[in-house]
């Protein structure tokens, strides 16, 4: 399904070369991005892939959008001005009718959102462990303390924290996060979804994204430089490191070639 057909970045030029976000895309030969069911923005650190996703989210007023700060020069908000100057075209439904708005489940999921969820789980675990320690110090056995924390009274003292549920690793928490938020019939902008995931889980997530795009009427626009995601996703890949934002094969990308050359140099160690 194609909910967002294309997106055109502003081509306006301003005199100050350092003003964000104009400086991110300055001197780039930018044609409109034309999207597939899965589209990837690839680039190294500082390439602007996260900025690009956030601009799209702002222009489309998507859940999860984040307004830029530190972008005021005088009285003009340059970030909002840049977003206003961008344009987009929505896709068509299965009957060929122009889509008038995005599905309500559509959202922009940032790497910070995932890390926040991981941190929240960790903080709950710290509180639970701390209360367990305090009750043992007061004379309870560990088993008695655990039973108390799992009782109604103990649960009230811990507010919404349930000790038995807070044993996920960072990666497991991330996978659970995607299970909870990725629903059928929606457009998703994902910023570095590989955060906290092992290579095996990165591949698992990429396969799930492929399935959701193929069978569950989802569209994905993903910012990543993970070779495991790049090599598994059935995606159109824009290379944001190139001047013209070229469409490339995953195996030709610099970051992927770096991994390939690294393992080739150490090939004998695997024999």
UniProtKB/TrEMBL annotation:
InterPro entries: AAA+_ATPase (IPR003593), AAA_GajA/Old/RecF-like (IPR041685), Bact_Antivir_Def_Nuclease (IPR051396), P-loop_NTPase (IPR027417), Rad50/SbcC_AAA (IPR038729). GO terms for biological process: double-strand break repair. One of its GO terms (molecular function) is ATP binding. Pfam families: AAA_15, AAA_23. It comes from the Bacteria. Transmembrane segments: none annotated. Residues 35-243 form the AAA+ ATPase domain. This is ATPase. It comes from Massilimicrobiota timonensis.
């Amino acid at each position: 399904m194609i909910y967002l057909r294309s997106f055109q970045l502003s081509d306006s030029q301003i005199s100050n070369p350092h003003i964000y976000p104009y400086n991110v895309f300055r001197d780039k030969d930018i044609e409109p991005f034309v999207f597939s069911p899965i589209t990837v923005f690839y680039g190294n650190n500082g390439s602007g892939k996260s900025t690009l996703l956030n601009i799209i989210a702002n222009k489309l007023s998507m859940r999860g959008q984040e307004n830029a700060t530190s972008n005021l020069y005088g009285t003009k908000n340059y970030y909002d001005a840049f977003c206003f100057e961008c344009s987009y075209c929505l896709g068509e439904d299965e009957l060929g009718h122009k889509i008038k708005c995005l599905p309500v489940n559509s959202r922009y999921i940032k790497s910070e959102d995932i890390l926040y969820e991981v941190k929240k789980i960790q903080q709950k675990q710290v509180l639970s462990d701390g209360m367990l320690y305090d009750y043992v110090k007061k004379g309870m056995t560990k088993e008695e303390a655990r039973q108390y924390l799992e009782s109604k009274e103990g649960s009230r003292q811990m507010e919404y924290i349930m000790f038995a549920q807070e044993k996920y690793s960072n990666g497991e928490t991330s996978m659970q996060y995607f299970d909870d938020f990725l629903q059928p019939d929606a457009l998703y902008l994902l910023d570095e979804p590989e955060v906290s995931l092992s290579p095996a889980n990165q591949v698992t997530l990429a396969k799930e994204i492929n399935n959701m795009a193929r069978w569950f009427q989802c569209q994905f626009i993903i910012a990543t430089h993970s070779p495991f995601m790049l090599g598994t996703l059935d995606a159109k890949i824009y290379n944001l490191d190139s001047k013209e934002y070229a469409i490339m094969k995953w195996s030709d990308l610099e970051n992927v070639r770096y991994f390939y050359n690294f393992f080739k140099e150490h090939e004998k160690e695997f024999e």
